[in-house]
Amino acid sequence: xxxxxELTSRNFYLRHAILRRMAALGIAAMAIASFVGSASAQSLLxxxxxxxxxxxxxxxxxxxxxxxxxxxxxxxxxxxxxDILKKLGTTKxxxxxxxxxxxxxxxxAGRFDIITGGMYILPExxxxxxxxxxxxxxxxxxxxxxxxxxxxxxxxxxxxKGLIYVTGAGYDSVPTAKKIGIPDDKIMQVAGDTEIVQAxxxxxxxxxxxxxxxxxxxxxxxxxxxxxLADPFTSPTxxxxxxxxxxxxxxxxxxxxxxxxxxxxxxxxxxxxVGKYGYDKKMLxxxxxTADLCKG
Length: 296
What we know:
By secondary structure, this protein is α/β, with parallel strands linked by helices. It has 11 helices and 12 strands.
C-alpha cells in the first residue's frame, strides 16, 4: 500500500471511531436529559408513591396544626395527613411553618406540597388552590355554667330571657346576635375564646359564643367543673368546612386523598389519631360537597 493510501485509510478509521464515540455520547446525553426532564416533571402523587419526602405547610394554630419541639407536625389536621400519606406510600414529611396569610402564596411558589393548616373551603380561595373533600364541620359552641341552669340552647333563648351574651370582638357572632335581637347592652365583647370562657365562669355573662373546638379544649384543660358546652345548641351561623389544599395542577394527588378519605373519615383509626387534639365525631363532615362550598 502506498504511503498516501495508508494515511487516508488511517484517517478514515480514526474519523469513523470519533463519530461512533460522539454518537454514543449523544445518546447518553439524550438519555440523561430525558431522565432529568421526567424527574422535574414528576407529579406529587408519584413522589408520594415513591416514598419521597413531602413538604406540608401550616401555621402555628393549635389544635389544628402546629410544630412540636423538633418541628414535628402536630395537631389533628397533621395527624390525618400523616395517616393518609402512609396509606398512599410515604412516611417522610418536612414541616414548613409559616404565617396564615402566607399559606396560599407559599403553595403557589412551591415552598411546600400540601396545605395542612385546616383551611376552610371558601369561594374566594377556590380559584387559587385545589381543595379535597371536607375533613370536618366546625361550628360555633355555646358555653354555659355547669349544668346549664337557665336552659340555654340558642341565641333566641338568650334574647328572650334578657341575659348577657359574651363573644369575641370582631367575631361574626356579634352582628349575628344583634340581628337576632339581643340588645347591644347585653352583648359583651372580649379578646377571644379564653376570655369568653372566663366571663361565663365568674358570672359576668350568662352564656358565650366561640369556636366549638377551641372552647371544648379550654373546658377539657380544667374548666369542666364550672362550665360546659350547651347540648344541643342551634347555631345561627354557618359552619366552617376545613380541607387539605393542593396546587391546582395536582388533581391526581387530591383525588388520591379523597379516595382514602371515603373509608378513613370517622374510622377508629382516624378517631384514635385526632381524639387527643379534641376532634370528636360531632365534627365529622356533614356531606356538603366541595363544589357547592366553592360556589358559595
